[in-house]
Specification:
This protein is 41% helix and 16% strand. By secondary structure, it is an alpha/beta fold. It is globular, with a radius of gyration of 20 Å. Bound molecules: UDP-4-deoxy-4-formamido-beta-L-arabinopyranose (WQD). The site of UDP-4-deoxy-4-formamido-beta-L-arabinopyranose has 18 residues, from helix 7 and strand 8.
Length: 357
Amino acid sequence: MNKRILVSGGAGFIGSHVATELIQAGYDVVVADNMSNCDMTCFQGVQKITGREDIPFVKIDFCDGDSVNKLFSDFQIDAVIHFAAFKAVGESVMEPVKYYKNNLCSFLNVLDAAKTHGGCNVLFSSSATVYGDPDKLPVTEESPRQSAASPYGNTKQICEDILEDTVKATRRFGKSVCPGISNNGPIKGIALRYFNPIGAHPSALIGELPRGVPNNLVPFITQTAIGKRECLSIFGDDYPTPDGTCQRDYIDINDLAKAHVAAVARMLEEKMKEDYEIFNIGTGRPLSVLELVKTFEKVNNLKLNYKFAPRREGDIPAIWADPTLANKELGWKAGRSIEETLESAWAWERHLAEINK
Ligand code: WQD
């Protein structure tokens, strides 16, 4: 009997790539999503890539506790990977209540249901944003979290704490807080702190599908290249970095998805060293905005229309990962080159133009 993984927010950019890798690794997957920030394009892409038309899909509001409970009752869940959350940094500053309510309630409902139904392995989609503007680079999992620069980033920190406290409680008090606790003991949790996920599946059937004007760099680049956007503004060229533009650790979405498969296996095969673990999921390679733009132009043999603009509020000059712990403990390492990643991002944008003709 295959282990079954619930992927909450599984119709989205990261969730759909993770669902694909899980299925190809032999897991059964249930995809659940409220469809607030995506359409069925990526879920249909998962079906095509895996050749599986039978993947259970559940449209659900994760803020409704009864619905989440029913989801766990309907399916025997061995582990849950929680992506379901709002993720636009700028929007979270304008609408903090919407972000705290949605991102915290949905995770609390998932944990409650996991406790009740014994699906006691929880993998949380966290973010390097918890490190704020780090004093020392690269950042390790021991680097201090800094007060979040946005409500979005704060919800990531709060959810990490909620998961850690829940793991500790089930370790200490067992069945009293976790009636459905499985025989293998307390709730176990892993938080994966992603750096900057970019790119698309090599098939060009799934990728990033931002609604409206993209906040993130790479979808703005590909939409400019395809003519949907007039010109890319590079926010700031006067940062204390080699070329004056911000440096980030851009992680290929397919590599990121494989890290989730490795983390799920670690939980289900009882290889965890602690009941709550954190891993940085990055390449360890800093890349500036300008370097990324130039690489995009080179690998796709095109000229991008861009200009330098004032700094964007809230941006930090530089952050990149020390991924040694994930490399060692998860047996995972980012493998795709930035060239392959940017080729796949451009192929995906062209695919979207084709299907939306
Ligand atoms: C990267 C760099 C911009 C757009 C955020 C969240 C993080 C995660 C990923 C959700 C920055 C520059 C961007 C543009 C630009 N979000 N840029 N012109 O801000 O590093 O991280 O997205 O999971 O939690 O914090 O990513 O892609 O927005 O920006 O110059 O039109 O590109 O200034 O230096 P960021 P980003």
